[in-house]
């Protein structure tokens, strides 16, 4: 299982405000959840392979997303 956190970045990234939290049973489900929530996000940055590789190496996946509605930080991490 994976936990997903999407937070809004303000003040040039100094302030992080949680916007959405969810869980997923697989990496692919987590990626689908992120892309549904942030449709303007680059789908290539959220490939299942890239997310899984990051989780395996450093125990989570973090990516900042710039949309017309603002900047967001996405974190996908395994539930321990």
Q: Summed up, what is this model?
A:
By secondary structure, this protein is an alpha+beta fold. 28% of the residues lie in helices and 44% in strands. 16% of the residues are buried.
General shape:
globular
Determine the fraction of residues in helical runs and give it as a percent range. 25-40%
Query: Tally of extended strands?
Result: 4
Number of domains: 1
Question: What is the H/E order?
Answer: EEHHEE
* Largest beta sheet: strand ordering: 2-1-4-3
* Helical/strand content category: alpha+beta
N-to-C terminal Cα separation, in Å? 9 Å
Beta fraction: 35-45%
Radius of gyration: 12 Å
Largest sheet: 4 strands, antiparallel
- What is the number of helices? 2
Mean pLDDT: 92
Q: Which stretches are low in confidence, meaning pLDDT under 50 for 5 or more residues running? A: none
Describe the overall structure.
By secondary structure, the chain is α+β, with helices and mostly antiparallel strands. The chain has one domain. The chain has two helices and four strands. It has a four-stranded antiparallel β-sheet.
């Amino acid at each position: 299982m994976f936990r997903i956190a999407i937070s809004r970045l303000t003040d040039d990234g100094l302030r992080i405000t949680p916007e959405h939290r969810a869980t997923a049973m697989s990496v692919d489900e987590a990626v689908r959840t992120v892309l549904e929530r942030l449709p303007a996000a680059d789908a290539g940055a959220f490939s299942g392979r890239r997310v899984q590789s990051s989780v395996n190496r450093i125990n989570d996946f973090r990516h900042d997303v710039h949309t017309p509605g603002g900047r967001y930080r996405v974190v996908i991490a395994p539930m321990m």
